[in-house]
Write a structure and sequence with these properties.
This protein has 725 residues and is an alpha/beta fold. Strands 3, 6, 7, 8, 9, 10 and 11 form a 7-stranded mixed sheet that branches. The protein folds into 4 domains: 222 residues, no CATH class; 122 residues, Roll (ph1033 like fold), CATH 3.10.590; 227 residues, 3-Layer(aba) Sandwich (Rossmann fold); 118 residues, no CATH class. The protein is globular, with a radius of gyration of 32 Å. The protein has 25 helices and 22 strands. Helices cover 37% and strands 14% of the residues.
Amino acid sequence: MFSWIPIYTEFAEKLMAYRDRQPELLGMIHDLKKQGLKPIRTEDKDSENRPIPLAEIDPFTFFANFNRGRFNKESRSEMMEWFKEKFDLLSAVPEDFEGIPVVPPFGAWFFPYARKRQADDIPSLWELAKATVSNAPEKLDAKLFDRCLRIRTVGPAKLTMGMFWINPRRYIALDENNRKLFEENAIDSGVRDMSSYLHLIQSVKAKLGEDYPKISRMAWEHANETTDAKKYWAGGFQWGETRKLEEFMEGNFWQIGWDKDDPKTAAKKTWDYFEQVKVGDEFAIKGFGGRNDLVIHYIGEVVHKTTEDGSLKLRRLNRPLYKGKGPKGLTGATWFDTLVPITSQTVIDAIFRGEKSSNQPIEEPNHANLQTRSANLILCGPPGTGKTYQTIERAVKIIDRTFSGDHAACKEKFDQLIREKRIAFITFHQSYSYEDFVEGIRPVLGQKGAEPRYECRAGLFKQLAVNALFDCLQADSAQPTDKVYTDDEKSEIVQRFLAEGDTDQLKPESQWKPYVLVIDEINRGNISKILGELITLIEPDKRVRQSDEQNTLVVTLPYSGDTFAVPGNLFLLATMNTADKSIALVDVALRRRFEFEELPVEFGVCKNLSDKMRLVLGRLNERITLRKDRDHQIGHAYFMSVGDEESFDRTFRLQIIPLLQEYFYNDWDGLRYVLGENLQEEGSFIRKIAGAKDREARNKWQWFFDARIDDLKCLQALSSNYQIE
């Protein structure tokens, strides 16, 4: 154990001689790439955000070449073998990399892009590295440590990880696992400066000892023990054209059909998941496709695992076998995948507990959460069906699936999530543009009389997408989550991740924070003008880590030159009034990328309407549907606050009549028909009150016109001569 320590410390000492030979280090990185070893990225960005070659590098960043997340043991050993020869190192290539915390793949650099880099950022890191190699912590220059801590892309976790790499006997890393261990042992892990770091070291020595690599390893084991609950998996039985179902079932085993070194994304993903399978997990052998969509043929418990050939020995469990539509609720996978992790309790109950009948598809509650549905959903329907009202509850339950409470409590939570920037709300209109939604050049207000200044600013959609992807990266990393990042810092970290091109390496986790963009009246905006070519990015299979057949689409934005992609945890929830004349603007491209859910008219939810009122409104909608179409019906939302005849009359006069005027503009025959003016027509619900001139008669539901209607004024004035039959 800890066979890595000798070569790491020797390498660090040799590296100090390259402070003035940084181009040689960058050349080695290019050579590594030629060898297919996947080193860190070497593309920088200038003050205009244009790509330029990286011209300088610090020793911590150079060490990150082989200390990044999901860099497997074989790749690290191969890279260390290459460096051993290149630097003429005497120490043996490690047999293990136990206890080494790693930076996330997207966060390898210990310095920002050139456009935001301070002149002394990298020189300061060289000074600190040299001091770390040679000195004990108490001998370090506190001002130097604090200066490095202030570098834009460096925090306590990252900086101390780098120091641990190059001198693991003397320095403690503040990665997430260590911090959890320290906190459980009542050790204050908050590091703000050199003084608090020295205090941490003294506390760790007193309570846990001075073997820091051992402590780091213990922290990793402890973190994995606390999350070592039984997991659930489903695996397919097709090896290309070969069917292995009978062999698997008869032999009580399952095996991966891809070689371990197969470069295909699906193969890598399957092997990555396989590494997480452990003895005691439950495993289902599945078939997907055809009339039944999903069929479970076998359920067993994992009793042995052979990593070399990707096989699992199973013990059959006597459970009902699911057959039906593929349950919704998978995270980071689809039922087409070779190996599927199942984390949703609803899906676990169906597949492994038989809590639904074998031919009953799983259906999440309609309003429960959109993670079981398409990431792009439009609530559509006639006016007054509660589309905007429902987006509040839908958005809250996407983010907090356990939330319960009435609409007032939901609205309060919705407002809170807007303040936390987890939900954003926008109403589209004809003048809304790409510059508002994605990014654009905007004037910056300065002092009076000063020359106008312009800068590129992120729009609502871009900033929300950056925040959502940043949270995915944070969940995927060993970085502490208590650091407060600015929007610029988040953007830079996301930029690096997308530029790495390894978007399919981002692990799917159910605890990723969902974000929701609510777009009210989406059909009122000019979609081509607002989204432009980015309309393709919102497709599920073009998003960052959204499906097995991953094809993440990364584009370069025209104004800022930033790389941009849409993450899988950003949900688009929109509304569309189907009676709106601008419905024609919703082109085929939008319809293909969104799932549409029609909200029907339901007067039953209006608790204070009388049976007669419901009858009137029902008949009115029947006539509107016959004369026009069902998209122009009168919705129930208009009558939610109606409690008596007077309020019903007021609502009809002030809201419904103007709406009908718009529907049947210049179509008086249609208006007469839907209101049942023809008293002899069967089903008419309007009856004339003969000679009704008294006040009592005039107060009876005065919301229709008389038979002599011939202009708009008559309609607006209304008549008291009719009542409901």
